């Protein structure tokens, strides 16, 4: 029998991972409306934006403004991606209380872009941890492409462990495994999740799957089966990745919500409100997105309409 959790936590990352890949730059007011809608739908963790250089990621240039406008929302963690110490400073200045660093698990990618191994990159985050802690900002870390990269193929588990240990060494215990390249498969995901949970019980894990090859949902279920309970999703299935050829968006949040709803897994999130938000997003961006539930609706709605 399958051993799925009775409840999970979903983080909505569409405002960051989704919108950063869009040609259309949404006005701050539109983003705020979406953010308020997500809070109202019940999300308790939301990735609001990033503090990258505005020239590198112009779509996220107004992240500081979003934080100032929304203020602190009790019970809701509003997370931002940061590249370095400058990101912590921007978080301090705008009132952001949760930041996330990222390193690529690909040695080749890291060496080519930063001239460092992934472990050296993570060791360099120590100053970010110190600065964040000094200002009461929680800090987490992400490892992108742990399930494989276009440059290295499959990455040995020992190399992933070395990156995890580098994070733990600088005092970061909340770690996201982010399948940016969409190369993970369920048995591999199950094995890695089981392994890291057992070997690093002090860590809190997030899983982040892109649906590039249609395997994101299967990978989520495999991770759940291995005991994972924290997942990212992107409303409307929005997203991509500038580094990865043909990258698709994150698993659509409403698809995950629907699977959970039909499987008896609590999320605390109102799927009907999320579907509405994903529709409005599609209208704002003027293109279709990768979401089964937006296309087909919930299975329970189908049944009730046929009975009418
Ligand atoms: Zn992503």
Description:
Helix content is 44%, strand content 15%. The protein has a single domain, classed as Aldolase class I (TIM Barrel). Helix 4 (85-94) packs parallel to helix 7 (126-134). The chain is globular and about 60 Å long. It has helices spanning 14-18, 28-41, 63-70, 85-94, 107-114, 118-123, 126-134, 157-169, 186-199, 216-225, 253-263, 271-285, 292-296, 299-307; strands at 9-12, 45-50, 77-81, 98-104, 138-144, 174-179, 204-209, 230-233. It has an 8-stranded parallel β-sheet. The protein is of the alpha/beta class and 308 residues long. The mean pLDDT is 94. The protein starts with 8 loop residues before the first strand and ends with a helix. Helix 8 links the parallel strand 5 (138-144) and strand 6. Bound molecules: zinc ion. Zinc ion binds at residues 17, 178, 180, 208, 210, 239, 250.
Entry keywords:
15% strand, TIM Barrel, alpha/beta, 14 helices, 308 residues, 8 strands
- Count of DSSP strands: 8
Give the overall average pLDDT. Answer: 94
Globally, the shape reads globular
* N- to C-terminal distance: 35 Å
CATH class equals Alpha Beta
Main sheet: which strands, in order across? 7-6-5-4-3-2-1-8
Q: How big is the Rg?
A: 18 Å
Q: How helical, in percent, are the residues?
A: 40-55%
Which CATH architecture would you pick? Alpha-Beta Barrel
Largest sheet: 8 strands, parallel
Give the helices and strands as they follow along the chain.
Answer: EHHEHEHEHHHEHEHEHEHHHH
């Amino acid at each position: 029998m399958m051993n799925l959790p009775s409840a999970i936590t979903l983080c909505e990352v569409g405002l960051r991972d989704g919108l950063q890949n869009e040609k259309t730059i949404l006005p701050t007011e539109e983003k705020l409306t979406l953010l308020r809608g997500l809070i109202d739908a019940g999300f308790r963790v939301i990735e609001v934006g990033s503090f990258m250089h505005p020239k590198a990621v112009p779509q996220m240039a107004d992240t500081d403004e979003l934080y100032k406008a929304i203020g602190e929302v009790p019970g809701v963690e509003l997370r931002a991606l940061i590249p370095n110490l400058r990101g912590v400073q921007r978080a301090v200045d705008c009132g952001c209380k949760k930041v996330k660093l990222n390193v690529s698990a690909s040695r080749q990618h890291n060496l080519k872009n930063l001239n460092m191994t992934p472990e050296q990159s993570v060791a360099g985050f120590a100053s970010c941890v110190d600065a964040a802690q000094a200002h009461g900002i929680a800090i987490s870390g992400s490892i992108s492409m742990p399930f494989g990269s276009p440059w290295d193929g499959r990455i040995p588990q020992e190399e992933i462990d070395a990156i995890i240990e580098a994070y733990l060494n600088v005092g970061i215990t909340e770690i996201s495994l982010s399948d940016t390249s969409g190369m993970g498969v369920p048995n591999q995901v199950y094995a890695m999740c089981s392994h890291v949970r057992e070997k690093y019980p002090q860590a809190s894990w997030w899983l982040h799957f892109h649906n590039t090859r249609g395997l994101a949902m299967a990978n989520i279920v495999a991770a759940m089966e291995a005991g994972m309970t924290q997942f990212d999703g992107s409303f409307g299935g929005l997203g991509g990745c500038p580094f990865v050829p043909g990258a698709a968006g994150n698993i659509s949040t409403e698809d995950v919500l629907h699977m959970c709803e039909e499987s008896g897994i609590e999320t605390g999130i109102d799927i009907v409100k999320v579907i509405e938000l994903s529709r409005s997003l599609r209208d704002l961006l003027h293109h279709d997105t990768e979401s089964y539930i937006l296309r087909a609706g919930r299975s329970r709605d189908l049944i009730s309409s046929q009975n009418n």
